[in-house]
Design goal:
226 residues, mainly beta, 17-stranded mixed β-sheet, 12% helix, 57% strand, elongated
Protein backbone atom coordinates (compact mmCIF):
# COMPACT_ATOMS: atom_id res chain seq x y z
CA UNK A 1 0.00 0.00 0.00
CA UNK A 2 1.26 3.47 -0.90
CA UNK A 3 2.38 5.76 1.90
CA UNK A 4 -0.20 8.39 0.88
CA UNK A 5 -2.98 5.81 1.19
CA UNK A 6 -1.74 4.80 4.63
CA UNK A 7 -1.77 8.44 5.73
CA UNK A 8 -5.33 8.87 4.45
CA UNK A 9 -6.45 5.70 6.22
CA UNK A 10 -4.88 6.91 9.44
CA UNK A 11 -6.55 10.32 9.10
CA UNK A 12 -10.00 8.87 8.52
CA UNK A 13 -9.40 6.40 11.34
CA UNK A 14 -8.78 9.27 13.76
CA UNK A 15 -11.98 11.00 12.61
CA UNK A 16 -13.92 7.77 13.13
CA UNK A 17 -12.54 7.34 16.64
CA UNK A 18 -13.40 10.95 17.54
CA UNK A 19 -16.96 10.69 16.23
CA UNK A 20 -17.42 7.33 17.91
CA UNK A 21 -16.25 8.74 21.26
CA UNK A 22 -18.62 11.68 20.91
CA UNK A 23 -21.51 9.33 20.09
CA UNK A 24 -20.74 7.11 23.08
CA UNK A 25 -20.66 10.13 25.40
CA UNK A 26 -24.03 11.34 24.11
CA UNK A 27 -25.48 7.87 24.67
CA UNK A 28 -24.07 7.56 28.18
CA UNK A 29 -24.67 11.10 29.45
CA UNK A 30 -27.47 12.28 27.21
CA UNK A 31 -25.47 15.42 26.35
CA UNK A 32 -23.12 16.28 23.47
CA UNK A 33 -19.55 17.22 24.36
CA UNK A 34 -19.41 20.10 21.85
CA UNK A 35 -21.45 23.24 22.49
CA UNK A 36 -22.67 25.44 19.65
CA UNK A 37 -25.42 27.99 18.93
CA UNK A 38 -27.93 25.32 17.97
CA UNK A 39 -27.67 22.92 20.91
CA UNK A 40 -27.15 25.30 23.84
CA UNK A 41 -29.01 27.74 26.08
CA UNK A 42 -27.52 31.19 26.70
CA UNK A 43 -27.87 33.08 30.00
CA UNK A 44 -26.59 36.65 30.34
CA UNK A 45 -26.21 39.45 32.85
CA UNK A 46 -25.31 42.98 31.69
CA UNK A 47 -22.96 45.42 33.41
CA UNK A 48 -22.73 49.19 33.13
CA UNK A 49 -18.96 49.18 32.86
CA UNK A 50 -16.31 46.63 33.80
CA UNK A 51 -12.71 47.76 33.39
CA UNK A 52 -11.04 45.28 35.78
CA UNK A 53 -11.46 41.51 35.98
CA UNK A 54 -10.28 39.04 38.64
CA UNK A 55 -10.33 35.24 38.32
CA UNK A 56 -9.50 33.11 41.33
CA UNK A 57 -9.21 29.32 41.27
CA UNK A 58 -11.39 28.64 38.23
CA UNK A 59 -10.93 25.15 36.79
CA UNK A 60 -13.03 25.98 33.72
CA UNK A 61 -11.52 28.06 30.92
CA UNK A 62 -12.97 31.58 30.84
CA UNK A 63 -13.15 33.46 27.56
CA UNK A 64 -12.55 37.23 27.71
CA UNK A 65 -13.71 39.05 24.57
CA UNK A 66 -13.75 42.73 23.72
CA UNK A 67 -17.24 44.06 23.05
CA UNK A 68 -19.36 47.21 22.94
CA UNK A 69 -21.68 45.57 25.49
CA UNK A 70 -20.05 44.47 28.79
CA UNK A 71 -21.71 41.35 30.18
CA UNK A 72 -21.24 37.90 31.65
CA UNK A 73 -22.50 34.96 29.60
CA UNK A 74 -22.93 31.27 30.43
CA UNK A 75 -23.77 28.95 27.55
CA UNK A 76 -24.79 25.37 28.43
CA UNK A 77 -26.75 22.39 27.17
CA UNK A 78 -29.46 22.43 29.82
CA UNK A 79 -29.35 26.04 31.04
CA UNK A 80 -29.93 27.24 34.61
CA UNK A 81 -26.18 27.57 35.31
CA UNK A 82 -25.75 31.33 35.64
CA UNK A 83 -27.11 31.26 39.20
CA UNK A 84 -24.43 28.68 40.07
CA UNK A 85 -21.60 30.91 38.91
CA UNK A 86 -19.85 32.59 41.83
CA UNK A 87 -19.20 36.23 40.95
CA UNK A 88 -19.15 39.62 42.64
CA UNK A 89 -19.23 43.11 41.13
CA UNK A 90 -17.58 45.88 43.14
CA UNK A 91 -17.44 49.24 41.40
CA UNK A 92 -15.81 48.63 38.02
CA UNK A 93 -14.33 45.23 39.00
CA UNK A 94 -15.85 41.82 38.26
CA UNK A 95 -14.52 38.88 40.31
CA UNK A 96 -15.18 35.24 39.41
CA UNK A 97 -14.32 32.53 41.93
CA UNK A 98 -15.96 29.34 40.64
CA UNK A 99 -19.08 27.55 39.51
CA UNK A 100 -21.07 24.81 41.23
CA UNK A 101 -21.39 22.39 38.30
CA UNK A 102 -20.87 18.64 38.27
CA UNK A 103 -19.57 18.55 34.68
CA UNK A 104 -17.04 21.17 33.56
CA UNK A 105 -17.28 20.19 29.89
CA UNK A 106 -20.83 21.07 28.93
CA UNK A 107 -20.80 24.83 29.44
CA UNK A 108 -18.86 27.91 28.33
CA UNK A 109 -18.20 31.01 30.44
CA UNK A 110 -17.52 34.26 28.56
CA UNK A 111 -16.86 37.73 29.94
CA UNK A 112 -17.45 40.50 27.41
CA UNK A 113 -15.36 43.50 28.45
CA UNK A 114 -15.27 47.05 26.99
CA UNK A 115 -13.31 46.73 23.77
CA UNK A 116 -11.53 50.08 24.18
CA UNK A 117 -11.49 50.82 27.95
CA UNK A 118 -10.64 47.51 29.66
CA UNK A 119 -7.62 48.04 31.92
CA UNK A 120 -6.47 44.98 33.87
CA UNK A 121 -6.96 41.34 34.76
CA UNK A 122 -5.78 39.44 37.85
CA UNK A 123 -5.50 35.70 37.27
CA UNK A 124 -4.85 33.30 40.13
CA UNK A 125 -4.64 29.61 39.26
CA UNK A 126 -7.14 29.94 36.40
CA UNK A 127 -7.27 29.48 32.62
CA UNK A 128 -8.15 32.42 30.35
CA UNK A 129 -8.51 32.99 26.60
CA UNK A 130 -8.34 36.64 25.43
CA UNK A 131 -9.67 37.87 22.08
CA UNK A 132 -10.60 41.08 20.23
CA UNK A 133 -9.22 43.76 22.56
CA UNK A 134 -8.23 47.17 21.16
CA UNK A 135 -6.92 49.26 24.03
CA UNK A 136 -4.05 51.68 24.72
CA UNK A 137 -2.89 49.88 27.88
CA UNK A 138 -3.46 46.50 29.52
CA UNK A 139 -2.00 45.10 32.75
CA UNK A 140 -1.96 41.34 33.34
CA UNK A 141 -1.21 40.03 36.83
CA UNK A 142 -0.87 36.25 36.72
CA UNK A 143 -0.04 33.74 39.45
CA UNK A 144 -0.17 30.14 38.23
CA UNK A 145 -2.63 29.11 35.56
CA UNK A 146 -2.58 29.64 31.80
CA UNK A 147 -3.43 32.59 29.56
CA UNK A 148 -3.82 32.64 25.77
CA UNK A 149 -4.24 35.92 23.89
CA UNK A 150 -4.95 36.39 20.18
CA UNK A 151 -6.36 38.95 17.75
CA UNK A 152 -5.72 41.92 20.05
CA UNK A 153 -4.24 45.37 19.52
CA UNK A 154 -2.60 46.91 22.60
CA UNK A 155 -0.42 49.98 22.87
CA UNK A 156 1.42 49.12 26.10
CA UNK A 157 1.19 45.65 27.63
CA UNK A 158 2.40 45.17 31.22
CA UNK A 159 2.99 41.56 32.31
CA UNK A 160 3.50 40.55 35.95
CA UNK A 161 3.71 36.76 35.77
CA UNK A 162 4.71 34.23 38.44
CA UNK A 163 4.81 30.44 38.04
CA UNK A 164 2.52 30.46 35.02
CA UNK A 165 2.21 30.03 31.25
CA UNK A 166 1.28 32.84 28.84
CA UNK A 167 0.93 32.58 25.06
CA UNK A 168 0.33 35.59 22.78
CA UNK A 169 -0.38 35.24 19.03
CA UNK A 170 -1.68 37.50 16.24
CA UNK A 171 -1.49 40.47 18.61
CA UNK A 172 0.20 43.82 18.08
CA UNK A 173 1.78 45.60 21.04
CA UNK A 174 4.14 48.55 20.75
CA UNK A 175 5.72 48.24 24.19
CA UNK A 176 5.78 45.17 26.43
CA UNK A 177 6.95 45.62 30.02
CA UNK A 178 7.65 42.38 31.87
CA UNK A 179 8.24 41.24 35.41
CA UNK A 180 8.34 37.47 35.01
CA UNK A 181 9.43 34.79 37.46
CA UNK A 182 9.53 30.98 37.09
CA UNK A 183 7.29 31.05 34.02
CA UNK A 184 7.12 30.42 30.27
CA UNK A 185 5.93 33.30 28.10
CA UNK A 186 5.63 33.12 24.30
CA UNK A 187 5.01 36.29 22.28
CA UNK A 188 4.59 35.43 18.60
CA UNK A 189 4.44 39.08 17.55
CA UNK A 190 6.88 41.79 16.48
CA UNK A 191 7.42 44.40 19.19
CA UNK A 192 8.80 47.90 19.10
CA UNK A 193 10.13 47.78 22.65
CA UNK A 194 10.66 45.04 25.24
CA UNK A 195 11.68 46.05 28.75
CA UNK A 196 11.72 44.72 32.32
CA UNK A 197 13.16 41.63 33.98
CA UNK A 198 12.97 37.83 33.99
CA UNK A 199 14.33 35.51 36.66
CA UNK A 200 14.23 32.12 38.39
CA UNK A 201 14.18 29.77 35.38
CA UNK A 202 11.94 31.89 33.19
CA UNK A 203 11.76 31.28 29.43
CA UNK A 204 10.68 34.29 27.35
CA UNK A 205 10.22 33.71 23.62
CA UNK A 206 9.56 36.63 21.26
CA UNK A 207 9.45 37.01 17.50
CA UNK A 208 11.29 40.30 17.24
CA UNK A 209 11.83 43.65 18.97
CA UNK A 210 13.41 46.87 17.71
CA UNK A 211 14.63 47.78 21.20
CA UNK A 212 15.35 45.47 24.14
CA UNK A 213 16.09 46.63 27.70
CA UNK A 214 15.83 43.41 29.67
CA UNK A 215 17.47 42.25 32.88
CA UNK A 216 17.77 38.51 33.47
CA UNK A 217 19.55 36.11 35.80
CA UNK A 218 21.68 33.16 34.66
CA UNK A 219 18.85 30.65 35.02
CA UNK A 220 16.53 32.46 32.59
CA UNK A 221 16.54 32.71 28.80
CA UNK A 222 15.35 35.11 26.11
CA UNK A 223 14.85 33.42 22.74
CA UNK A 224 14.03 35.29 19.55
CA UNK A 225 12.18 33.50 16.76
CA UNK A 226 13.15 34.51 13.23
Amino acid sequence: MKLSNKILLGFFGLIFLYLNAAFIEIRLTGSPNIINDKNSITEKVDFNDITHLALNGLEKTVRVIGSDRPMLEVRSIKGDLLKKLKYVVSGDTLTLTGIDADDNRNFIVTVFVPIASFKSIHVNNSVVNFKDLQIPHLSIYQSKGRIAMNDCRIGTLALDVNTAFLNITDTSADTVSVNIETSTVNIYSSLIRLQGSIKNQTFLHIRDAQEIQLRKDESSNLVMYK
